[in-house]
Structures are given as C-alpha cells and as structure tokens.
Amino acid sequence: MYQWTPEMVRFLEDAAGRTEYYRRLAEALGRLLPREAQVCDVGCGLGHLAEALCPRFVRVTAVDCSSLAIDAFQSRLAGRQPENLSILRADAFALPETLRFDAMVFCYFGSLPEVLRVARKHCTGSVVIIRRDYARHRFDLGDHPRRRATAEETADALRGLGVACRRETLGLEFGQPLRSREDALGFFRLYLRDPAQEVRWETVAPKLIETGDPAFPYYYPQSKNVSILRFDAAQIPRE
Questions:
Q1: Going by DSSP bridges, is the β-strand pair 101-107/38-42 parallel, antiparallel, or unpaired?
Q2: Which residues pair with 101 in a beta bridge?
Q3: CB 174 within 8 A of CB 21
Q4: pLDDT tens across 131-166, in order?
Q5: Which helix (H) or strand (E) holds 128?
Q6: Angstrom distance (rounded) from CA 179 to CA 34
Q7: Cα–Cα distance between 130 and 147 in angstroms, integer?
C-alpha cells in the first residue's frame, strides 16, 4: 500500500497545481463514461483526479484510507468543495456491501486482483484502470524497474481472464516544479531506490530546467505515457 508522507504531499501538490495532467485524464474519462454516471475514484490520494471529474459527472465519490491524504484533499478544497463530490476516508476493501457505483476508476491503485475484488462488489457498469505505460522508475537517479504491472501486462492479464477491454494511451507531462536547490536534492533523495547512492547537485542539475520563476526556479520535466483500460464489470469472473 502506498504510504504518504508530508514531504510527498507537498511535492505532489506543487506539481499538480502546475500541470494539465489531471484535467486531461478527466477529459479522457469523460469520453469513455456517460455524463449521468455516479463515479467512484478508488484510492483517490490527494484527490486531484476526483476534483477534475466533478464537472463531467453527476456524482463523484473519492475514497482513500490515508488520513494524511484525505486531510490534505479536504484542506485544499476548504470552502469550495463541489456539491456533487463526496470524500470518504475508508478502506476500499471494507466498503459497505450496499454501496454501488455506475463506474469505478482505479488510478494507479493496487494489483489487478485487488482491483477486481473491489469492482466485483461495488461496480454495476464500467471499470476503468489507469496504469503507467512504462517499466522503469522515472524519479530516480538510477535505472530501476518498477514493481507494479505495466498497462500492457494488465491488459494481457485481463485477456487471460476472458475480460475484453478497450485501451487508450495518452502522453502527458507531469514533471516536478522545485522551490530551490535544496528542494531539488530533497526530491531526488525521496525517490532514490539505492540508499547507498549520494545525491549531489552536480548530478541533479543537468536534469533540471531553469525557469526564471522566483517561486519555482527549477523544473524537472517528465513526459509520461499512461494507459486507460475500460471494461464492463459484468465480465469479471466470480471468485
């Protein structure tokens, strides 16, 4: 399970406030799902995708078990929470049996068996899985494989279960704005996979763009491919 820290929250809030990433994901989901759908964003984290979905659907429910993430989400929306948005601090695997949604979105949430376990119980229509479409860590100074399944591996696993899915791939920019040199060093230390590796400015600086913005003088550019996999919950095999 993803473990949030205050430092992770700060970096992601800085990044999310300066990108079209979540808006473009929401636009893509708006093309795939009916406007009248009641949508659940499972494992919503800081809630940027759920917030972007609100203008596009009748009802959006955001669910996450992290108190730190949900508190940050609610704090950001203080005084301006959309009327059609519900935020639940809850374990997705322990939601009430009676809770049902027309569509469920799993953006970087868990393994495929975990997704299917939740969707089987609570989704009456479309299941959407959003996966990173690359196999190496992007915020690391070394070359390390990601442990979670790629979009292609997830699509293959679904086909192996007899589940037909539609797949759409998007190329999206989601880099990291940085407040200072110290901020940049802290960012790379946070995501370093090799604890023995030293993070030096001489190593980090060539990866950054100088922006001329006094608030965020450095930017770490990252173009990412993500895939959206959609299928009908009725296809999910019984346990």
A1: parallel
A2: 123
A3: yes
A4: 987 655 555 565 545 567 788 899 999 999 999 999
A5: strand 123-132
A6: 40
A7: 16
Structural contact between residues 114 and 88, judged by C-beta atoms closer than 8 angstroms: no
Q: What are phi and psi of 103, to 5 degrees?
A: -150, 145
Residue 203 corresponds to which tokens in the numbers above?
A: 């190593």
The amino acid sitting at 79 is G
Segments in the chain forming alpha helices (H):
6-16, 21-32, 48-53, 67-76, 112-122, 151-160, 181-190, 201-204
Measured between its terminal Cα atoms, the distance across the chain in Å is 22
Q: Are 59 and 87 in contact (CB under 8 A)?
A: no
Q: 57 is written with which tokens?
A: 């659907």
In this prediction the pTM is 0.92
Retrieve residue 123's tokens.
């989704």
Percentage with pLDDT > 70 across the chain: 93
Beta bridge partner(s), residue 41: 62, 105
Q: 169 to each of 204, 215, 224, how far by Cα in Å?
A: 30, 33, 10
One-letter identity of residue 201: W
Tokens 């609610």: give the residue: 74
Answer yes or no: are the C-beta atoms of 105 and 42 closer than 8 Å.
yes
User: Looking up tokens 């920019």, which residue turns up?
Assistant: 173
Helices marked H in 54-147: 67-76, 112-122
